[in-house]
Amino acid sequence: MVFPKPSSESDLFLYSNFASRYARDSLPRFSMPENSMPKEAAYQNIHDELQLDAIPKLNLASFVTTSMEEECNKLIMESINKNYVDMDEYPATTDLHNRCVNMIARMFHAEIGENENAIGAGTVGSSEAIMLAGLAFKKKWQNKRKAEGKPYDKPNLVTGSNVQVCWEKFARYFEVELREVEVREGYYVMDPVKAVELVDENTICVAAILGSTYNGEFEDVKLLNDQLLEKNKQTGWDTPIHVDAASGGFIAPFLYPELEWDFRLPLVKSINVSGHKYGLVYAGIGWVIWRTKDDLPEDLVFHINYLGADQPTFTLNFSKGSSQIIAQYYQLIRLGHEEHNGELQRQCNGAEGKFGEEWAL
Ligand SMILES: Cc1ncc(COP(=O)(O)O)c(C=O)c1O
Predict the structure, then answer these.
(1) How many domains does one find in the chain?
(2) Residue 272 domain-assigned (yes or no)
(3) Does the C-beta of 271 come closer than 6 Å to ligand 1?
């Protein structure tokens, strides 16, 4: 038998991978190894260790997309080395981001003219999107209170006790009191009537969930809007609504187009959605959309110019990958309204037991 002749040290390694000293000695866990190793050894060691993970496609507990088409995987690899924040270097990527914001905002019925750009941002997920939306509400409320000469040190936020942990994080990180409406036997989402009872002059917003993390149920945003309009009329306040549509934002427009939960309701000022859930992209993408420019206080937007021209940014982090944004754009144009509908029908049927019948009100 003839064995191919290794021509370099790394070739040599290929033929002795599992018998080499790199496979015999265990790798240090707490400090960097003193010596380097061939690339094949590094790959094999890590690859083998990762076999201990579950297979993502079989992970039914995942809240995120685990499978995309080969063409999209290709686009992801082609853009894996692009830093999204270098907008002047990567103007085409920036444009795809803006197209996504425009498409999603229109899907949520934002009040924008035909050729007007919507106000929104791509984020790492719904959690970052919620931090940004929450900060915008807090800032708007503070600015108003300051202008009225009233105290602005005790902001609060009203939600159901079924909120995802990111709302508790927002409240703790940014010092906002979280007022939770307790769920009760047989009613496992926020009761809009009780939520409005908790609102006072220090409430920066009421957050409703479209697709509760625990059972997928939609909260009644329309009832909340109507009750809050009534309270605002009586008190002279203008308490707004945020909709956490992390899961439902890419469900309701397709499966329940008549359901009014979005910018069709006047008090809904911002909405978040996870691109990596039913936006059908791998983990690492979310979106926050504001109803109008006035709903995002200008003093939260930073203008940077050291990467080229003036760039407005409103995100918590600076550098991030471009792949997920490009992948989101791929899904939007690839599936369109028509196929998004079909894909979601298939996924919701497949997810029976996880969400059961609870997707609708
Ligand atoms: C209702 C709701 N809001 C927010 C989040 C946080 O989303 P992300 O993982 O995209 O940060 C989740 C995640 O499960 C969720 O279900």
Answers:
(1) 1
(2) yes
(3) no
210 within ligand 1 shell (Cβ under 6 A): no
φ, ψ at 198 (rounded to 5°): -80, -10
Residue 82 resides in a domain:
yes
Domain that holds residue 96: 73-350
- Give pLDDT tens digits for 51-79: 999 999 888 877 899 999 999 999 999 99
Q: Which residues pair with 152 in a beta bridge?
A: none
CA of 274 to the centre of ligand 1 (A): 7
Percent of all residues in the chain with a pLDDT value above 70, rounded to a whole number: 89
Residues 287, 289, 292: CA angle, nearest 5 degrees = 165
Q: Ligand 1 pocket test: pick from 65, 66, 128, 164 the residue with the most ligand atoms within 8 Å of its Cβ.
A: 164
Could you read off the pLDDT of 299-352 as tens digits, one per residue? 888 887 766 667 778 889 889 999 999 999 999 999 998 877 777 666 666 544
3-state secondary structure string, 53-100?
A: CCCHHHCCCCCCECCCCHHHHHHHHHCCCCECCCCCCCHHHHHHHHHH
User: What does the chain come to in residues?
Assistant: 361
Query: Amino acid identity of 274?
Result: S
Q: Which ligand 1 atom is at minimum distance from the Cα of 276? A: 10
Residue 335 sits in a domain whose CATH number is 3.40.640.10
Whether 272 is in the pocket of ligand 1, judged by its Cβ within 6 Å, is no
Determine if ligand 1 sits within 6 Å of the CB of residue 126: yes
Report how far ligand 1's centroid is from the alpha carbon of 224 (Å): 21
